[in-house]
Design goal:
Elements: H1 2-25, H2 32-63, H3 68-98, H4 103-107, H5 115-135, H6 145-148, H7 153-184, H8 189-202, H9 208-213, H10 215-228, H11 232-248
Length: 251
Amino acid sequence: MIEGFDQELERFDRELDRFEREQEHRPQIESARRIILAGIGWILLWFTCDFVIGAVIGFIGGLYNVPNSSTDRIISYASDFSDVGVFSAAAIIRGRIVGSGNIDIGLGNKPMSRLPIIAGLAIIVVAYAILLHFVGPETRLNKTGRNLLWMHPWEALWDFFLIVVIAPLAEESLFRGWLWTGLQKHWGVLPTALLTSTFWLAMHLFNPVQSMALVPVAMILAAARHFGQSVRAPLALHMIYNFVVISGDMF
């Protein structure tokens, strides 16, 4: 009887040791507060980079009497490349952290679910984009399709690609990518959607009217992220929305 008890005790010790080793190697989940601070930090870095680029290039342009139109164009392109760099770095670094080493998991990059619902949301976002076309130019994108018609073809192509592809990819990888994935580990769908949408709208506060017009879009993108269970859903709708808006402005 004593021998049997000793065997059970040894088995218990082995199980306890195995459990402790698993706990040591198990990745620690970040707190919601830390995830939010990380999101704020990357957004501030984005703003700071754009501000520094604008200040430095503007100063140099003024020093050498470069025309304002040329200086503004250089600032615009330099800021574009800076934005791509910042958001790409955020996607890689934070996606890996939130996904415990797997960027795709951290970003929520997987096949979409509930495709009929996503298709319905796509129809709604297209209808809303068309509605905005008739409301007024102040609700549209900063760089409109009408401007593209007067640009050099290569410049127009870059701006079109930036608005339709790069901007949605960068924004969704942050707000409804790793930020959404990280917060979902602690919060329910509604608070996660509210915070990520608020952050996304805050990035467009340089145009308050446009920011208010984007509130329904933020709701649709959040719904797509929830029902689609993948960052691909809001990314696709975001691209579609920008494409319809910029295409409508060309006519």
